Amino acid sequence: MMGNPYILTIAGHDPCGGAGITADLKTMEDLGVHGLSACTALTVQSDTVLKKCEWTDAGLIVEQIEILMESYPVQAVKIGIIEDLEVLNTIVHLLKAKDPGIRIIWDPVLRSGSGYDFHNRIKVRDLHGILEHCDLVTPNYNEIRALSENGNTEKAIREITSRCHLFLKGGHRNDRKGMDILYRKGMPPVEFSPKDILNTDRHGSGCVLSSAIAAYLALGNSLEDSCEQAKEYTYRFLNNAPGRDRLKGITLQYISQGTTIDEHLKNIRNICVAGGDWIQLRIKDHPEKEVFEAAREAVKLCRAYGAKLIIDDHVSVAKAVGADGVHLGKNDLPAGEARKILGPGFIIGATANTTEDIEHLAGTGIDYIGLGPYRFTHTKKNLSPVLGLAGYSRIMEQLRQKKIYIPVVAIGGIGLKDMGPLSETGLQGVAVSSLLSDAKEPSTHSGLRETIARIQQYFNQTPEVASR
Ligand SMILES: Cc1ncc(COP(=O)(O)OP(=O)(O)O)c(N)n1
Ligand SMILES: Cc1ncsc1CCOP(=O)(O)O
Ligand SMILES: [Mg+2]
Asked: Rounded to whole angstroms, how far apart are CA atoms 295 and 310?
């Protein structure tokens, strides 16, 4: 065939461009195919919230498809959000009438990443007539569960694969997270293992995967190769998520301490002057208004010295003062809610005490984990069980085995002598309070500077961590 193949995406418009037809067209262009589009809906959304979806009139969708099919040699079509089964049926039949050989990949989006329900009552039995005309459907685990009757996913898989191929995305499964499976009629399933567990909830990742499969198919690859390469492409997309590198090379978080707000600010200033580049403002037992005032001052200090500022607990304060992020504990606002309020630009850290905590949190789009306590400390009340060095070694090893790579910092009673052993476990760094608090009048700044530089170096020497 001459020139680059043409692919059509029939999907919704996302004004932020992360999903829908814009994401599809970007993917197609990236993979060297001509992208065409027919818009099925105008949505009002950002990458964290979908507020509204206005469906395109079915007649208008048909007209868009007709003009494109009549003007270009379209080889493959990716279908995204569709108002209902009637519209889907019309589209699928129109495409096949125009070109019986066209490859149709349907990404059955039942629910957006931000929780908006498009369809919640469709079952596989309603889809038989449509599936007969599709080449491939690409549901995720939640979607196959929703399509199944009485939770019988095995039966749903059998029903689908007797009609078309099925690429079941494993990002939401609990048992073998990230394991995608290609089911083809009359052939053994093919499993695609995850490289890393990344945040598969990233807005638009399903759109990217299905349009990449369509592109690779149109470029002449087999279905199995197309799925494998599309998974690799989507992995790169997820790995390049905005903010993923935000904490690269940042290894020491200072947690503020003080009996008064002024003392917190004085300690923060000392740390910044001495080269600290990551500060957490942690003020307990003060009204939010006072935390807000302190945060306003802390932002100015951190900006002046080029340090990142995290606010403990108070999401609205972090947003109001333009801090760099928040740190959330088990009893604070859930990370997903915080992300909706803060948007993609903020760093969100969360507290964990076990591998299971981290496994759960890694799927919620947070940027780092504070894992602890390392040992008993007076700085925090109601401590979780102490982990000790053995606990960190075990948990970090379990994370490697589970391919969960999220920056983890150790916290709780950590002293200078602990840095060497802790840095060898694969941690990104440490969060400390007492160790660096109350130092240190200007005359001892050089001592503080040296201490901070030494801690930072311990963790920056660990290649595995530095590359994350
Ligand atoms: C880096 C870091 N890790 C853990 C914590 C503890 O947070 P949380 O569990 O919310 O407890 P409080 O700090 O709010 O008492 C943290 N602050 N920072
Ligand atoms: C906030 C927090 N969360 C677990 S331990 C801790 C306190 C860390 O401070 P220190 O370094 O003084 O033990
Ligand atoms: Mg907290």
From this structure: 9
3-state helix vs strand vs coil in the chain, percent to 5? 40, 20, 40
For the segment 82-126, what is each residue's pLDDT rounded down to a tens digit? 998 999 999 999 999 999 999 999 998 876 655 566 776 788 888
Residue with tokens 């951190």: 302
How far does residue 135's CA lie from ligand 2's centre (Å)? 55
Match 């910044």 to its residue by tokens.
272
d(CA 178, CA 175): 9
Check: CB of residue 17 under 8 Å from CB of residue 344: no
Q: Does the Cβ of 349 fall within 6 Å of ligand 2?
A: no
Contact (CB, 8 A) for 234 and 198 = no
Domain spans of the chain?
Answer: 6-239, 252-458
- ipTM, two decimals, is 0.98
Whether a cis peptide bond, with omega within 30° of 0, leads into 373 is: yes
Q: Is 393 in the pocket of ligand 2 (CB under 6 A)?
A: no
| Nearest CA, atom 9, ligand 1 | 329
- Contact indicator for 433, 451 with CB cutoff of 8 Å: no
Q: In the CATH hierarchy, which fold is given to the domain comprising 252-458?
A: TIM Barrel (3.20.20)
Distance of CA 442 to the CA centre of its chain: 43
Q: For residue 284, give the ligand nearest its CA.
A: 1
The CATH superfamily assigned to 6-239 is Ribokinase (3.40.1190.20)
Structure confidence at residue 15 (pLDDT): 92
Query: What ligand has the least distance to the C-alpha of 370?
Result: 1
